[in-house]
């Protein structure tokens, strides 16, 4: 059955289409009797507004573009769940793109979404992104953009992040409390916000416990754990140090699983020889061998808060400029990879 239109209602009631349109919008210009007649007929015929026509009329597509590094990452999939749960209830569709940590893909994704006239963007930066012109230019032209997780310092807008500093501080402090002193940090490219924040928390925990910070125990992985050869090289360099680490704090899911794979390949016992703590939302942390001690981020809530801020920018553009950065608390879950089975029981 074809959907009824405003023209059909006007023809059936022998009134103009403009009168029908204003009556459906509850305009004060239409007398109550006519308004009641139109509304009752529209309801009887199951009339529904055409969302495409409305978006063209209002210059709104009621859609939001989301650009993240990868959907397969459990953290980002939770982030998307949070975004969609709020967007759907507020009448917005979500269009998702993956950058795969490529700057070129990020730019291409951005350009495509803008060409499809999305009302705003939610972005977590690719690990290889150092030039932000594609976002700065769009914001100057009035497109609302909110960043989450991996955020740029140079752009002023709403940002939603986990408290990376505190999460790293707690993870490193935990390793120190278990007796570890040569704690290495395996992390992402230095220019990412999450890298500098997690590195700062790691460093402060060492200093607060009287352990000098040693740059040789820090390894930056440009591809963030995705490239096996890079993981093997980073771990190999750490193990080749005059005093190899007795613990490794990894800064992401990919780095955590990459590190565990290399250590197990080398038959290094965890945690007896090297303890491991990850900064992660990996869903199988408890099923790993040994189960992984991890800093957990509130990914679902981060997605929910970010999309709420974006829709606020979309629907109330006059309020732009009053931006905020929201820091959501992390939690540390202790398992066998850092303390051993026996210690965990006691």
Automatic annotation (TrEMBL):
Coiled coil residues, start to end: none
CDD domains hit by this protein: HTH_LacI (cd01392), PBP1_LacI_sugar_binding-like (cd06267)
Highest rank taxon of the organism: Bacteria
Keywords tagged on the record: DNA-binding, Transcription, Transcription regulation
HTH lacI-type domain: residues covered: 4-58
Pfam families: LacI (PF00356), Peripla_BP_3 (PF13377)
Protein name per Swiss-Prot or TrEMBL: LacI family transcriptional regulator
Organism: Dyadobacter arcticus
